[in-house]
User: Fold Undecaprenol kinase from Meiothermus luteus.
Amino acid sequence: MPVLFPPPKPGTDPLPLRGLKASFSYAWAGLRFAWQSQRNFRLEVYIAALALGLALWLEVDLIPVLLLVALVLGLELLNTALEALVDLVSPHYHPLAKAAKDVAAAGVLLVSGIAALIGIMLFLPPLVARLGLW
Ligand SMILES: Nc1ncnc2c1ncn2[C@@H]1O[C@H](COP(=O)(O)OP(=O)(O)OP(=O)(O)O)[C@@H](O)[C@H]1O
Assistant:
């Protein structure tokens, strides 16, 4: 990952929009890091694309689908950040490093499981109707 310097503080920056552009480029670098290093993040992006396509096809309300996608992907990004931080401060085995990674992974699993459940509740009735199974 390239070394990026922090942007100047908005109050002291004579060109604040340039600072904003730099902030977006740091966030973009974070997204690229997660995409390249996290198989789970890539899988969740594919599932999100599938869910959005399905929502458009079945004419399901997009707002809850977008909220769930943002929740799962945002949490996975935070989990990736935490994993990187744990690897930085504790490259060797430590029970607290294990607890930090395991609890963060449990958070992602919990939210993803509930999102999947809500997804089934949202998509199943219109899917069954669209396929003429009921
Ligand atoms: N420094 C450490 N000390 C103690 N346990 C660790 C440490 N690093 C990782 N572990 C344990 O190994 C598990 C897997 O961690 P690892 O970093 O290899 O994969 P991960 O990036 O969490 O997995 P994934 O990317 O598939 O979500 C953690 O959940 C934790 O239980």
Summary: Residues 95-130 form the longest helix (36 residues).
